[in-house]
Amino acid sequence: MKAEIISIGDELLLGQVIDTNSAWIGQELNKLGVHVHFKSTIGDSREILLKTLHESAERSDIIVMTGGLGPTKDDLTKHILCEFFDTKLIQNDAVLAWVQSIFLKRNLPMLASNNEQAMVPEICEVLWNRNGTAPGMYFVKNNKVFISMPGVPFEMKCIFEEEVIPKLQQQFSFPSIIHKTILTASIGESFLAKKIATIEDSLPSHIKLAYLPSVGAVRLRLSAYGNDNRVLAEELNTIVDSLYACIGEYIYGEEEDTLSQSVGKLLAAKNNTVATAESCTGGYLAHLLTSIPGSSSYYTGSILAYANVIKENILQVDKNILIQNGAVSEACVKAMAENCRRIMHTDYAIATSGVAGPSGGTKEKPVGTVWIAVATPTHCIARVFNMGDHRGRTIERTALMGLDMLRKELIAAK
């Protein structure tokens, strides 16, 4: 079963609006076991939409469209659908009554253009839109399904969940599909692939593994296809167990977990506390920690020591360390972490200091050089990294690496 998604609107092509609809629809179709093999974004053009509709009918079983269904003159979709399906617009009295009730409830005048929302292609099945005035439309032609929905995300999602999914499930018999996502940090995609190569090579043909890298992390998504959910789940669990045995030190969570959540759970479970001393990350590490509800039970605060004078006067880093080793050094970052832990009266502390760039680098300490330290109740560790020459990514990677270093220390202390 193949599907494609068509997003309609000049604003999408111009970048004035970001197309989140197609990503969401793709995820929902995938849950049904439908393979989305084509996506396109087109402008408000009769010729292009007609051409796209004819092409999509040749290559796909389910065609999902969003956009172009409003009350303004540039909303052409349903008129072009009439042309494609060789039909005409008719008034749907139920939709008209719904639109009128919305304007009455809001005490707004009903314009002639709003009446147009009740005009739908004669051969379509109306998809009810309880969050707006533009209904969705469901067509079947030569065993192909065409679905047209408004582009407003909260309207589209409601129509798809309440109207589209039940109709598709009634019309088609979909295969079972189960996904499992494993989240890793502190290891690059290629190194990860090398470590789990044996596991990947042994996967049966109906189970696929995808690598989904992002800044500071790589998601491993396993997808199992078949006819028996129980059997598929058992197979996936066996593979996941193998991954934990092979790369468990790099795994920080599953599905929608974040590194901040994982660290927070470990701290809360042990009744431990943490503080941060940040230089190059500028408070981003504190932001990640405090983004988790309930973080006040384990996170006490941060000393944002961007300038050396703050490192010396507030964090009490020995002036000689700054003179002899510099702020971007093992000695400095260890002193920052240890002193932060002592000043804040916490069990743990994370410290960061580096050259975020784009300027300020030297031959010995090029842009992207970062030192991270974690002070624990018994010792202090520090590691040096080169995070690259992009300032934003350097800050994000540094904060995430600091969290992962803390995560490993918490696990080791069990």
- Sheet having the most strands: 6 strands, mixed
CATH-defined architecture of the largest domain: 3-Layer(aba) Sandwich
Describe the strand arrangement of the main beta sheet, using strand numbers. Answer: 2-1-3-8-7-6
Number-wise, the strands total 17
Strand proportion, as a percent range, falls in 25-35%
Task: Round the Cα radius of gyration to an integer and report it.
Answer: 28 Å
**Structural class given helices, strands, pairing?**
alpha/beta
Give the CATH class of the largest domain: Alpha Beta
Q: Terminal Cα separation, in Å? A: 49 Å
CATH topology of the largest domain: Molybdenum Cofactor Biosythetic Enzyme, Chain A
Count up the helices.
16
Q: Give the % helix.
A: 40-55%
- In the CATH hierarchy, what is the superfamily of the largest domain? MoaB/Mog-like domain
Parts with pLDDT < 50 across at least 5 consecutive residues: none
Mean pLDDT: 94
Output the keywords:
about 25% strand; Alpha-Beta Plaits; 3 domains; alpha/beta; Maf protein; five-stranded mixed β-sheet; 17 strands; Molybdenum Cofactor Biosythetic Enzyme, Chain A
